Amino acid sequence: MGIELARYAKRKVASALGQRVDATPIIVEGRSVDGAFVTITIENNLRGCMGYVGVRQPLLKAVERAAMAAAFEDPRFPPLRSGELPLSVFEVTLLGPLRPLASRAPQELAASIQLGVHGLLVRRMGFSGLLLPQVAVEYGWGASEFLSQTCLKAGLPEDCWCQPDTEVYLFEGKWFSESG
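Above: the chain sequence. Below: its structure as tokens.
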């Protein structure tokens, strides 16, 4: 089902761009998720990545919503153009529920994270940053570096995850690429 979800995301974007698409339905049997992200790359370069966490919704709706946001609303990039679609690779990440990490001891906090399984969300003083599970694997980070990079993504000091007023959450994520 994973590859089909990534292809579904791409078909939804293709349709929004006015292209004719295969309307083969995906059977998901009423499944819901706690969040979804879609990542779009062209020649292994990021072209868009957007999604939602902490909002339980039907699976296909979550994937479509994230796909549209990644293609057309990522503030780092102009909206995806029709000519870019054949070059693009879509990846879908399905998220489980957010779980707060209660420990403030840096070693215990880092030990709670399973690299490649858990993603992170950091919140502090109105700022937030989220990194998907595959990011730590792609960059070869350990748990402490993953925490620090999530803080930096939020625009916060890299060691803010050690501070008592910082909320740290983890979530499980499974990702699927249309390229397999």
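The mean pLDDT is 93.
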